[in-house]
Amino acid sequence: MDMTIKKAVIPVAGLGTRFLPATKAIPKEMLTIVDRPTIQYIVEEVVASNIKEVVLVSASGKSAIENHFDYSFELETFLSQKGKFELLREVRHISRLINIVSVRQKEPLGLGHAVMVTETVVGDEPFVVVLGDDLVDSEVPCVYQMIKVFNRLQESVVAVERVPHSEVNRYGIVEGEEIEKGVFKVRRLIEKPSPNVTRSNLAIIGRYVLRPEIFSSLKRTLPGIGGEIQLTDALDNLRKERSLYAYEFNGRRFDAGDKLGFLKATVTYALEHPDVGAEFANYIKTVASAL
Ligand code: UTP
């Protein structure tokens, strides 16, 4: 088996109900954070981690995402004729970032199911899964940090962060032993446990490096919480046969599929933005001092 990681699976087939009515006609991954859609930050993280092939798990109503990364003959011709070369460069940059293959998830049967439908495209090699609505702001791209751990251990790795114990019921939770700084050998995974079921507060976030054995685990996984096929449950099956690790990444994560998470991401990325950051910081200070 070739153990180099070449492909990133990005599931974007969810319905985005937490962000209605914004997401009625626009996929949540296309909502803008400062000056680009969320999905572009995700794809840029993947590219910065040396991956050029993206497998998008898409659904009806999500074609704007494919179009965003496609070559647009009309737009590029127009910008070039008008001499708008800076914008042309920006637009070309996006369409040249990656090669995309789209796979349809015909029904939203869960994240595990979304990963399962990529089997024939991914094949018999390890790959990463990056959720289209989870942003990580970090110096070293989170996916790159995880690939380094995978290359050393050669087993699947899930990204985790500590969450308040009262919130564990919103996440997939990992129990395990820390074997080196920030790396845990997973003993058990539980999807959305109530806080009295586990003492762990290590929550899985939207970054995974998976060995291809996950596909056979997924096929054996029955629908779990919410009637969906959960990736967490499939990973809990996998760890019974192979070692599985959790990695506490360096960086700050935002759930951009959630209103408050989206707002926090907007403020953070705006403050870091070279064009608007300084002025925006002044504005925030004015607003904050009036509170
Ligand atoms: P979420 O639960 O955050 O996404 O799933 P959702 O279902 O779109 O959002 P809400 O809860 O209704 O607001 C996590 C990720 O898994 C993908 C989503 O697109 C998201 O990136 N997903 C989820 C699928 O691709 N297919 C599914 O059946 C479920």
The H-level CATH homologous superfamily of the largest domain, spelled out, is Spore Coat Polysaccharide Biosynthesis Protein SpsA, Chain A
CATH class of the largest domain: Alpha Beta
Overall, the morphology is globular
CATH architecture of the largest domain: Alpha-Beta Complex
| Total domain units | 2
Order of helices and strands: EEEHEHHHEHHEEHEEEEHHEEHH
Percent strand equals 15-25%
- Kindly report the spatial arrangement of strands forming the biggest sheet: 8-11-9-10-12
The CATH topology annotation of the largest domain reads as: Spore Coat Polysaccharide Biosynthesis Protein SpsA, Chain A
Termini, distance in Å?
Answer: 58 Å
Round the Cα radius of gyration to an integer and report it.
20 Å
Mean pLDDT: 95
The computed structural class is alpha/beta
Helical region count? Answer: 11
Task: Estimate the helix proportion, in percent.
Answer: 25-40%
| Low-pLDDT ranges | none
How many strands in all?
13
Summarize the topology.
Elements: E1 7-11, E2 32-33, E3 36-37, H1 38-48, E4 53-58, H2 63-68, H3 73-81, H4 85-96, E5 99-104, H5 111-116, H6 119-122, E6 127-130, E7 134-137, H7 142-153, E8 157-162, E9 172-180, E10 183-191, E11 202-210, H8 214-219, H9 231-238, E12 245-248, E13 252-255, H10 259-272, H11 277-289
Parallel strand pairs: 1-4, 1-6, 4-5, 8-12
Antiparallel strand pairs: 2-3, 6-11, 7-13, 8-11, 9-10, 9-11, 10-12
The site of uridine 5'-triphosphate has 21 residues, from α5.
